[in-house]
Amino acid sequence: MAMARLANHLRTIDGGLGVYDPRLEDAENDTAGITTLELPIPGLLSSKSSVEIARILVMADDAARDLGLTLSDGVMELDNLTLEVIPELRLTDRGFVDVRAGSIVDVVLDTE
Q1: DSSP letter assigned to residue 22
Q2: SS3 of 44, please?
Q3: How do beta strands 16-20 and 34-38 pair?
Q4: Is residue 103 helix, strand or coil?
Q5: Where in this chain does the record put each Adenine deaminase C-terminal domain (predicted)?
Q6: 58 has pLDDT over 90
Q7: Burial, 100: exposed, middle or buried (Cβ in 10 Å; 0-12, 13-18, 19+)?
Q8: Chain-centre distance of CA 14, in angstroms?
């Protein structure tokens, strides 16, 4: 239900980045517990100022960390994992990752 609530909200704002905390849910307010950065151009870009975007991203990171997110780059690191244009191999804070296999790639070559 939590994922559906957030997905439906993102659809109403024409796309964006969002964090939903079900502990803050309110039957009277559909957006209670939802922190979003609206990205209506076309679900990737914002017309907001860089200062406003940074402020909202800090709020989203704080909300995600309250839920247990420990990634060093916060929600932006998660957000970039979903982009279709990202190649099969990604450099992350945990190392070089084979996205399809979901595993860390050993980058140390044995020269013997």
Answers
A1: G
A2: coil
A3: antiparallel
A4: strand
A5: 2-101
A6: yes
A7: exposed
A8: 16
Do the bridges between strand 34-38 and strand 89-92 make them parallel or antiparallel, or are there none, so unpaired? unpaired
Q: Give the whole-angstrom CA distance, residue 92 versus residue 35.
A: 25
Where do the structural domains in the chain lie, given as residue ranges? 2-85
pLDDT tens digits along 1-26: 777 888 888 889 888 888 998 888 77
- Alpha-carbon Rg for the chain, nearest whole angstrom, is 17
Residue 14, φ and ψ in degrees, nearest 5? 65, 35
What's the token pair of residue 89? 């191999």
Residue 95 gets the label, from left (phi > 0), alpha (psi -120 to 50) or beta, of left
Q: Model-level pTM greater than 0.70?
A: no
CA angle 88, 110, 92 (to 5 degrees): 30
Q: Are strands 95-98 and 89-92 parallel, antiparallel or unpaired?
A: antiparallel
**90 CB-near residues (< 8 Å, 6+ apart):** 81, 96, 97, 99
